[in-house]
């Protein structure tokens, strides 16, 4: 310990010396005799290594940082690209200033156009798409739950709009606090479960990334504590956590205005317990059995020991999220509650007053907006078309006079706004799914999969599934001595269980997991996975097998739907897109069973689920499990896939 | 109308230099290991348990909360003076969320320190030492409940910086300045924030460098000084041996000082310190003090009564130049005056 301390002092002094020698200082406040010249070469090397390490991280991520401007290339905030396709994050309040389109400056000095895809006004996150490059430099989102107080926190962005060459400003600090809650007030938005940092966050930093030293985005910097000090950094900045952003990504990519979820129930601390203190009796949670005075033990799998924790966590989930609660009733019994959360009320923008064309009041700064530290965007009224000086820091500027954005914000929250953009997101997600499932594309492939089927405890049957890469499949299953045979001949679904072959209609096919499992196995080899069920729409964010997913929806000509859940990340927070669940109903209630897929293994260059389970309900209660015993590549036997009885089997 | 002379920090400029220097310093290299993170975890973990959040009365826009450090097993806590200590009820919240009522044992006016006692024992406290902890250039971690960000069991906010300087500051006099002159530890972490007073400044090993001081604002630049009251002074304060300037015996002179004013004492010594007469050829006459001037302050101490004036006079030696502030009609006059020997 002492060694470390001594060494650190030596290191510091050495660095000062180095800085002095390289002329970084004009004056030196440190007297020469205080410089410890006993520092060894080895220590000096170590210091340089550490320095280089940091510089390398900065070099690695700097290309993904955006200086965001409005359409007239003025004002601005910051942002970060999180995907080579140009998907980027910023703050909602930056977009409020900039509008629905604009320019993003990268460190190559170039400006690229961007379009707004979706926004989360309550959580202050917006997603935009950069255009003009095939592959953008990007930094993936990291796992913000791993962030610890004292970790290095590297903020980048364009504070005070300093960067004329678009090269971001770097401010280094430490994580000051995690799981912080910042109330909304005035025009400020609520930041729940956010990361507090002492890295300098100033006007213009809004929307910019917070990186960890692994070169991942762990948050989006959006606000700070200032109060009586104007809007400049006083050592307390806040970043929206990357894990919250992940939960909202599918909804944002679906082009929604996303609202946050609520249980319509409040909890407070009482006698060392967290108990339900307010509840709306019409809320799903109340109908599922939550009552006043019930103790909250867990929320979303996390132990809750004080009320603020719950308040923090619930802020990080979107409307319609399937929440898991574990509660203890007053009689001591425990109860699991699984309900989809309602959305918080959305603040529609006020009716627009039509400003007169030459209204002199229009250009006035809004001095009374003093609580808003974030609206550092945009000074857009450049009627003369000339470039103006960026807005003075410390003084918020008027939001963009952007009729298009205002109109956009009048859309209902939670619904897809732009189906064309949504289709692009679908393309993007299906592309990713394919990349993660098809390791090497086979020519034509036929597989025979043999599964055992287990009920609650014991073996109840077996099944053989034949699949061909062109999409045809056949399922032969015997469960409790009852034979079921389903065939898809490439066009139609057939039920061959009885003497007479029977063509199944789409609705019948969708609700039979025994059949749809065949469709799921080689879906990614098809040009349009589940294309039989109609056109694909990204429906929003959801959860399956406890994992965040994008819920896809296939809509047929009768506007009847079918759902598929695609994961976004693996357990370590790395990107991984796999099919987790398919179902004809998003809640799998009533007669609608779903099928979950897991235990993916690589066979013949394809990732195949070795475990398939029929489930019911939001909590995915298992009815049967099919475990794969063997997978064989076979010749294609066309006779298997005909809607007739005469097969080889 | 005479305006009080504006004050400035003489140390603002060196401070800026040191702030620049801070960015160029590296972290203790040996604590990096494989990852760049984790260098300060130990210090933070140790310190969090030894700190408390303090809540009490508020007055107008003045904050009713602050931070404090535990300095003994039996629940002695050092914090900063503030209105939150003046109400009926001062609450102390420990790191585990337990709440205790606190009583104020001692205050130090110049340093704005307060010593609290709670009725609880704890194994987690800062060991105070006689010697200064931490040198110029050392990394420090500051912990405080600035802006009341943390609540209940939630941990204190952590900021990182280095010790910029150990220096003496001179006493200043304007309502926004401090009445303290002596040693302080200047740091480059931003700590001059509401609620941060009484927070901890610790080394990478978790030793207490000092306690975050009250907000000091430069009336000239509107910048704030980020500093800690050094550990060794805290130790003296807790032990009760830290001298209060107004009873500083060492400064007492054998020959009594004379400013050349006689106060209006007919109503007793508890009355406001109005000047009744000014002696001819005295220092007071030289600087043009006048009868009916109300003495507000002398040598950095607020003067409310004749008695207080007399007690501050005892700390002045002939030849000392001190600042006297008087109210004349509607004006405040800030006048340097040099005491002479009493004849």
Walk me through the structure.
- The complex is a heterodimer of chains A (649) and B (343).
- Chain A is built from ten helices and 33 strands.
- The termini of chain A are far apart.
- In chain A, the strands form six sheets. A 13-stranded antiparallel beta sheet of chain A has the order 26-25-24-23-22-21-33-32-31-30-29-28-27. Chain A has a six-stranded antiparallel beta barrel with strand order 1-2-3-6-5-4.
- By secondary structure, chain A is an alpha+beta fold.
- The radius of gyration of chain A is 28 Å and the shape is globular.
- By secondary structure, chain B is mainly beta.
- Chain B has five helices and 22 strands.
- In chain B, strands 1-2-3-6-5-4 form a six-stranded antiparallel barrel. Chain B has a six-stranded antiparallel barrel with strand order 7-8-9-14-11-10.
- In chain B, a hairpin with a 5-residue loop joins strand 2 and strand 3 (76-80).
- The two termini of chain B are 35 Å apart.
Q: What is the subunit arrangement here?
A: heterodimer
Mean pLDDT of chain A: 84
Helix content, binned percent of chain B: 10-25%
Low-confidence stretches of chain B: 1-36, 246-253
String of helices and strands of chain B: HHEEEEEEEEEEEEEEHEEEHEEHEEE
Please give the number of β-strands of chain B.
22
Instruction: Give the structural class of chain B.
Output: mainly beta
Helix fraction of chain A by DSSP (H/I, runs of at least 4): 10-25%
Described by the principal axes of the CA atoms, the overall outline of chain A is: globular
Largest interface, with Cβ-Cβ < 8 Å?
A-B, 57 and 54 residues
Number of strands of chain A: 33
Number of helices, where a helix is a run of at least 4 consecutive DSSP H or I residues of chain A: 10
Our estimate of the beta-strand percent of chain B is 25-35%
Largest sheet of chain B: 6 strands, antiparallel, barrel
Mean pLDDT of chain B: 81
Reported for the largest beta sheet of chain A, the result is: 13 strands, antiparallel
Gyration radius of chain B, rounded: 22 Å
Q: CA-to-CA gap between the ends of chain A?
A: 74 Å
